[in-house]
Design goal:
The complex is a heterodimer of chains A (246) and B (179).
Chain A lengths: L3 E4 L2 E4 H15 L3 H9 L2 H13 L6 E5 L5 H10 L4 E6 L2 H13 L5 E5 L12 E7 L8 H11 E12 L5 H23 L2 H13 L3 H10 L4 E7 L4 E7 L2
Parallel strand pairs in A: 3-4, 3-6, 4-5, 6-7
Antiparallel strand pairs in A: 1-2, 7-9, 8-9
Helix pairs in contact in A: 3-4, 7-8
Chain B lengths: L2 H22 L12 E6 L4 E8 L2 E5 L8 E5 L1 H8 L4 H6 L3 E5 L1 H13 L4 H9 L1 H12 L11 H14 L1 H11 L1
Parallel strand pairs in B: 1-4
Antiparallel strand pairs in B: 1-2, 2-3, 4-5
Helix pairs in contact in B: 5-6, 6-7, 7-8
Classes of the chains: A alpha/beta (246), B alpha+beta (179).
Chain lengths: 246, 179
């Protein structure tokens, strides 16, 4: 069917996906960090730490964090770029961006800029950033290929893209456990803690619909990146893709 | 991912950080290497990395989808001797190192690697925790060939880390054996 896309396991009109995703994140924004900690048993902090270590960001660099949510990556990037650098925390969702702003203020982090934007149309000049990151956000983007092309355009030569995202595990045992956890526990916890089972059902479903490691690597290369490699974390439940523009 | 593969990926991150720190501090320049991709393999270890140089930055990758400008293949002991001042041309003449491509580019990379003075313990502690980093630091001290008897130093590191990551009890035995 043309002009349709997936929203979790449902097929929806392409034009509707953005507002459906927005509704999900409007609903979960207030409990986002708490739910991440609970659902991943705190592992999301390690995955993000690994992403920062892989970023190669240095003093004076310009960094854009797309779908930056509550600002976990932006906080660490801010420390790395120093006062001479620039970090922009962006999200398509105003509620998430507000949570990010509150979080940074509460943690005493200043000097990060906030922009509400759609990853498919990045309002920046060509060759602006040294690093662009998107953590647990790409699977919610309607046109991922367009977003990757936009990231390539705004990266400087020598710049890199970091995509931290749920992915596919090769281990049959882990897959069984993970499927059980995703479709039986996550929704229930979403209902108990965030009073929103439906949004966490979408979370579990959207992970399964997201391209696997090799497919995403192909998409990054198709977007003109010169190099792309990925590293599996937690047995492939999460993968970090790094795309390089030469 | 196997524990050893995780270890080597951490090493590529550490190496990448160290090289870029040298470049940022102005201690080395890589403008002559800009745009070059260099393959580098240690034949006796599962270490196969690619150095991609772009816009005054170096990326250390485990694989590339593009042809390299030069490929360097050598054994770990030869690499160590190279880092400790052995002449590249002499090693080439003795067939101890294989270079496919531009030898001058290979020499530039070797010169760059000689400049890297990684405090593995300090860097690793940032994301492995102090206890593991301390163990890594102890292991890397064995890298110095002056401390070696007949064993391959990288094998010692490999064995030690495998023991540490897979079987801490075995690691204790390893420590006693090598102390």
């Amino acid at each position: 069917m043309e002009n349709t896309t997936h929203f979790g396991f449902k097929q929806v009109a392409t034009n509707d996906k953005q507002s459906l995703v927005r509704d999900v994140f409007n609903s979960v924004a207030g409990k986002y960090d708490l739910m991440n900690d609970v659902l991943s048993f705190g592992a999301h902090r390690l995955w993000k730490r690994y992403t920062i270590a892989s970023s190669n960001v240095k003093d004076g660099d310009k960094v854009l964090d797309i779908a930056g949510g509550t600002g976990d990556l932006a906080i660490e990037f801010r420390k790395k770029v120093g006062d001479s650098g620039q970090v922009i925390l962006s999200d398509i969702n105003a509620a998430m961006l507000n949570e990010g702003r509150k979080n940074l203020i509460n943690k005493g982090v200043f000097g990060v800029e906030f922009i509400q934007l759609n990853a498919e149309y990045l309002p920046f000049d060509n060759s602006t950033f040294d690093c662009v990151s998107i953590a647990f956000g790409l699977r919610n983007v309607t046109d991922k290929d367009q977003a990757l092309k936009e990231v390539y355009r705004i990266l400087k030569p020598g710049g890199c893209l970091l995509i931290l995202e749920f992915s596919t595990t090769d281990s049959a045992l882990l897959k069984k456990l993970y499927d059980f956890y995703s479709f039986n526990i996550i929704q229930k916890l979403g209902g108990i803690i965030a009073d929103d089972e439906a949004s966490y059902q979408y979370l579990a479903e959207s992970i399964r619909k997201h391209p696997d490691q090799e497919t995403l690597k192909g998409m990054v290369l198709d977007a003109s990146f010169d190099f792309c490699e990925y590293h599996n974390l937690s047995g492939g439940i999460v993968a970090l893709h790094k795309g390089i523009k030469v | 991912m196997q524990p050893f593969a995780i270890f080597w990926h951490k090493q590529t991150i550490i190496l990448e950080q160290a090289l870029n720190r040298l470049i940022t501090n102005g201690e080395v320049g890589i403008s002559v290497l800009n745009g070059k991709t260099i393959g580098f393999s240690l034949q006796d270890l599962p270490l196969d990395v690619h150095f991609v140089c772009a816009n005054e930055r170096i990326f250390v990758l485990s694989a590339t989808n593009k042809p390299t400008d030069v490929d360097i293949k050598l054994k770990s002991m030869v690499f160590i001797s190279l880092l400790h001042g052995e002449d590249l041309t002499e090693l080439l003449r003795q067939d101890k190192i294989s270079i496919h491509g531009d030898v001058k580019t290979a020499q530039l990379l070797v010169d760059l690697l000689k400049e890297v003075d990684i405090d593995l313990e300090e860097i690793a502690s940032k994301y492995t925790g102090d206890i593991i980093a301390n163990q890594l630091g102890k292991l890397t001290k064995k890298f110095n060939p002056t401390n070696m008897e007949s064993n391959n130093p990288l094998e010692i590191i490999k064995d030690g880390l495998t023991a540490l990551l897979i079987n801490p009890i075995k690691f204790e035995q390893y420590k006693h054996k090598n102390s």
